[in-house]
Design brief:
The structure holds two protein chains of two kinds. In chain A, the strands form four sheets. A five-stranded mixed sheet of chain A has the order 9-11-10-13-14, with helices on both faces. Chain A has twelve helices and 14 strands. Chain A is an alpha/beta fold. The chains are: A alpha/beta, B alpha/beta.
Chain lengths: ~325, ~375
C-alpha cells in the first residue's frame, strides 16, 4: 500500500477506472500534455491517448456543454474546471441542462458525468481561485456534490462518482492536495455517495464539516480537553443526515464548520435539519463557523477569512458553555 | 512588401425556387425526386396546420404558451430530408417540420407545450434531442453527441439549429470554436428569421450576413434562401458531404421569416410593420412549392383537398392522443431526478410534505396526529379528484 497525496489518489482512481471503463473520457484546459495545473491528470494522455484525454479551448461553458453531449451520447466524460472560480461561465450548462436532463426527458436522456473542480482557499492563489461554491450546486436538484477531505476518501469517492449514472460535481480541496499523505490501497474500493465518515468519536459535542476544514477541525479537537465527535460529511448532496442526527442526539451540541460564506452556506441546511430532528436533545443552539459574508479576500487576508482551529475552538467552548 | 493580404473570403447565396416559383433547372434538376417532393410538400402543410390547431388550443385554454413555426417549415425539413436517419438532429423549438419528418410524434411536441415532460421522452431511434428552451445552449450538445460517436468509431454527424438571436449567445461561439478546433463533424444551421421576439436581427449582428460568423472558426459557410426547399436541400447536401468527408463543421445560414408571433404570449404587431409581414407572406415556402408542383403537373386541387383532409384527421388524432393521455403521476417528478433516489427525496415524495412534523407526525400529540391523518387523506382525495 502506498502513501499517497490527494492528487496522487485521484490520479490513481482515474487510471484504474479508465482501465476498466472505456467510456470514461477526460477533458479540460491544460489537462493533456501538461497534466493539469495541479498535475492531477499527469500521465493520463500518454497512457490513454489524445482521443481519450484531450485539451479543450479555454471556455468553461463549452467544456461542460460538450461533456453533456458526450454523456447523452453514451460516454462518461470527466471534465476538469481549472478552479472553482471559473465555474461561473459553466453554471448555465450545469444547472439548466446537466441537472435537469434526466427529469425533463423522464429518463430518455441522462448525463453521467463527473466534473472535477479544485476548490477552496488557503494556497495564496489569485482572486477567483479560492472560493467555496458547494451550496449553490447542492441547491440544484439533479446534481450530486462531493468533497473529500483525505486521499483515501478521495479515491473511494471518485471511483463511486465515476460509476454514477447522474452528474456529480467532485470538489477537490486544493489546500490539502499535497498537505496530507496517507495509505491508499491499490486495490479497488468505493465509498458510496451520501455516507458520512465519523473521523473521531466523542460524547460532549458534534462537529460537522467537509473538505479542507476537516483538518482545521481536527486541530481544534486535539487542543480540546473535551470529548468531541467529528463527522466528515464527504458528500454535500445527498447528505448523510442520519449520521449527523444520531451523533447530535448523543451529544446534544453541534458546531458546523465550512469555508463557504455563512449565509446560505450548507451549514444553514445542516443546522435547520438538526433543529428539526434533534429539537428535544439539543442543549445549545447549533453554531456555525464559516467564511464571512464578504467576497473571498485576496491572499493577504485569506487566513483571516477561512475558519481556522482557533475559531473552531472558540465555537466549541461557547457551545459547551451554553 | 509591408502590407499583404492574409485572408479574403466571400459568401455565396443559394436560391433555386424563388418566391415567384421561378426554378433554376441547372441547380435544381434531379435534386429532389418528384415523389419525395410531394411528400415534402405534405410535411410542410401538416406542420402549418398543426401550428393553426395549436394556436386555437392555446387560445381556448387547452394548451400553454406555444411557439408557431409558420413560415420556417422548409429550413429544418431540408435538413431532415438530407440527413441520414441516424445522424443527430439537435434543435431549438422552431424545427417541428424536420422533427416530424424524422418520425417524432406530433403529440410529443404538443405534450411539451401542454406542460407535460413526457413530451420530451423522445424515443432514441429518431436521433433527436428534446426541445431546448434556453437559447443557444444546444449546439454544444450537438458537438458532444457527435464527438461520442467519433470516439466510438461510428460514422455519424450532427446538424444543429439555432436562430439569429441565439447566435449572440456565448455558447454559440464556443460550440463553433470547439467543433472546429477539435474536428467534430457538425452542421451549424442558423435560422435567420429576422426577429428574436422583438429584437431585430440587426441588433444581433451588424455584419451583412450571419453566415460569415463561420469564417472566424475556419468553417465553409453559405447563405441560402430558407423558404426554398430546393435551396435548403442543396445546401445541406453540400454541408453534410463536406462534414462527413472531412470530419469538420460547416456553417449554413438559412434566411427565412417568422410569420407568426414569437409565441402565443407575444403580439408582434407591437414592434413590426404589417407591410414587412405581408411581403414575407408572399415568400411563403408552401405557396411557392405548391405552384412548382402544379408547374410540374404533379399536383392539382383534388390532391390538395385529399392532402388537407388527411392532415386534418391526423392532427385531430394527435391532439386527441395528447389530450387523452393519463394525467402525469406526481411521483414521476421525484423518481426521474436520480437513478438512485436519495432517501431525503423519497421522504418528500412519500409524505407529500417538506416540514419535518408533517414528514413524521409521530412527534405530535395523539389528537394532532389524528388531525394530520385527516388532512393527509383530504389532500390525497383532492389530488386524485384533480
Amino acid at each position: 500500500m502506498a502513501h499517497l497525496t490527494l492528487v496522487q489518489a485521484i490520479n490513481l482512481a482515474l487510471i484504474q477506472e479508465m482501465e476498466k471503463n472505456d467510456a470514461i473520457v477526460v477533458l479540460g484546459e491544460d489537462i493533456g500534455v501538461n497534466g493539469g495545473v495541479f498535475r492531477v491528470t499527469e500521465g493520463l494522455q500518454k497512457r490513454f491517448g489524445a482521443a481519450r484525454v484531450f485539451d479543450t479551448p479555454l471556455a468553461e461553458s463549452g467544456i461542460i456543454g460538450l461533456s453533456i453531449g458526450m454523456a447523452m451520447g453514451g460516454l462518461h466524460p470527466v471534465p476538469e474546471i481549472q478552479f472553482e472560480g471559473f465555474l461561473g461561465p459553466a453554471y448555465d450548462q450545469i444547472c439548466s441542462h446537466a441537472a435537469r436532463m434526466r427529469s425533463r426527458t423522464r429518463g430518455a436522456f441522462t448525463v453521467p458525468m463527473t466534473i472535477r473542480v479544485p476548490v477552496g482557499g488557503g494556497i495564496h492563489a489569485p482572486e477567483l481561485h479560492s472560493d467555496s461554491p458547494e451550496s449553490i450546486y447542492a441547491h440544484t436538484p439533479g446534481l450530486k456534490v462531493v468533497m473529500p477531505s483525505s486521499p483515501y476518501d478521495a479515491k473511494g469517492l471518485l471511483v463511486a462518482a465515476l460509476r454514477e449514472p447522474d452528474p456529480v460535481i467532485f470538489f477537490e480541496p486544493k489546500r490539502i492536495y499535497r498537505a496530507i499523505r496517507e495509505e491508499v490501497p491499490e486495490d479497488e474500493y468505493t465509498l458510496p455517495l451520501g455516507v458520512a465518515r465519523t473521523v473521531c468519536e466523542g460524547s460532549d459535542l458534534t462537529i460537522v464539516s467537509w473538505g479542507a476544514s476537516v483538518v482545521q477541525c481536527m486541530q481544534a479537537i486535539e487542543k480540546s480537553e473535551r470529548s468531541i465527535e467529528l463527522i466528515d460529511l464527504r458528500t454535500i448532496y445527498p447528505f448523510d443526515m442520519d449520521a449527523v442526527a444520531t451523533s447530535v442526539k448523543k451529544t446534544g451540541r453541534c458546531v458546523v464548520v465550512h469555508e463557504a460564506p455563512l449565509t446560505c452556506g450548507f451549514g444553514s441546511e445542516i443546522a435547520a435539519r438538526i433543529m428539526e430532528r434533534c429539537f428535544l436533545q439539543l442543549e445549545a443552539p447549533v453554531q456555525r463557523v464559516a467564511g464571512f459574508d464578504t467576497t473571498m479576500p485576496y491572499y493577504k487576508l485569506e487566513l483571516d477569512y477561512l475558519p481556522d482551529a482557533n475559531r473552531v475552538s472558540r465555537a466549541i467552548q461557547d457551545c459547551l458553555a451554553y | 512588401m509591408p502590407i499583404t493580404t492574409v485572408y479574403t473570403a466571400e459568401i455565396k447565396k443559394i436560391s433555386i425556387l424563388d418566391e415567384h416559383a421561378n426554378f433554376d433547372e441547372k441547380l435544381g434538376d434531379g435534386l429532389i425526386p418528384n415523389d419525395a417532393l410531394v411528400r415534402l410538400y405534405g410535411a410542410m402543410v401538416a406542420c402549418r396546420h398543426l401550428d393553426e390547431v395549436a394556436f386555437r388550443l392555446q387560445r381556448s385554454g387547452r394548451m400553454g404558451t406555444y411557439p408557431q413555426n409558420m413560415g420556417q417549415e422548409a429550413t429544418s425539413l431540408g435538413a431532415a430530408f438530407v440527413l441520414r436517419p441516424d445522424d443527430w438532429m439537435v434543435t431549438c423549438y422552431r424545427e417541428n417540420c424536420g422533427l416530424f419528418w424524422r418520425g417524432v410524434p406530433m403529440e410529443g411536441i404538443l405534450l411539451h407545450w401542454m406542460g407535460d415532460e413526457r413530451g420530451n421522452a423522445m424515443p432514441k431511434p429518431h436521433w433527436v434531442t428534446p426541445i431546448y428552451v434556453p437559447l443557444g445552449t444546444q449546439m454544444l450538445h450537438a458537438a458532444g453527441l457527435t464527438l461520442a460517436a467519433k470516439y466510438r468509431g461510428i460514422d455519424r454527424i450532427a446538424c444543429t439549429f439555432f436562430g439569429d438571436g441565439a447566435a449572440s449567445e456565448g455558447d454559440f461561439h464556443e460550440a463553433c470554436n470547439f467543433a472546429s478546433n477539435l474536428e467534430i463533424p457538425v452542421v451549424f444551421v442558423c435560422q435567420n428569421n429576422f426577429w428574436a421576439i422583438s429584437t431585430p436581427s440587426k441588433i444581433n449582428s451588424a455584419a451583412p450576413t450571419f453566415a460569415q460568423r463561420g469564417l472566424s472558426y475556419g468553417m465553409p459557410c453559405v447563405q441560402v434562401d430558407g423558404n426554398d426547399i430546393f435551396a435548403t436541400v442543396y445546401a445541406m447536401k453540400q454541408a453534410t458531404e463536406y462534414t462527413r468527408k472531412h470530419g469538420k463543421p460547416y456553417f449554413v445560414e438559412m434566411v427565412t421569416y417568422r410569420l407568426g408571433d414569437h409565441t402565443t404570449a407575444d403580439d408582434a404587431k407591437r414592434y413590426r410593420d404589417a407591410d414587412e409581414v405581408e411581403a414575407w407572406r408572399r415568400k411563403d415556402p408552401i405557396i411557392r412549392l405548391n405552384a412548382h408542383l402544379k408547374n410540374l403537373r404533379i399536383w392539382d386541387d383534388e390532391k390538395e383537398a385529399a392532402l388537407r383532409a388527411k392532415v386534418e384527421q391526423d392532427i385531430a388524432d394527435a391532439v386527441a392522443r395528447a389530450e387523452n393521455i393519463t394525467p402525469p403521476d406526481r411521483v414521476d417528478a421525484f423518481d426521474s431526478m436520480y437513478a438512485d433516489m436519495p432517501a431525503d427525496l423519497a421522504l418528500q415524495r412519500d409524505t407529500r410534505q417538506t416540514h419535518s412534523l408533517g414528514q413524521d407526525p409521530s412527534q405530535l400529540p395523539p389528537e394532532a396526529q389524528e388531525r394530520a391523518a385527516q388532512l393527509d387523506a383530504a389532500a390525497l382525495a383532492q389530488h386524485s379528484a384533480h
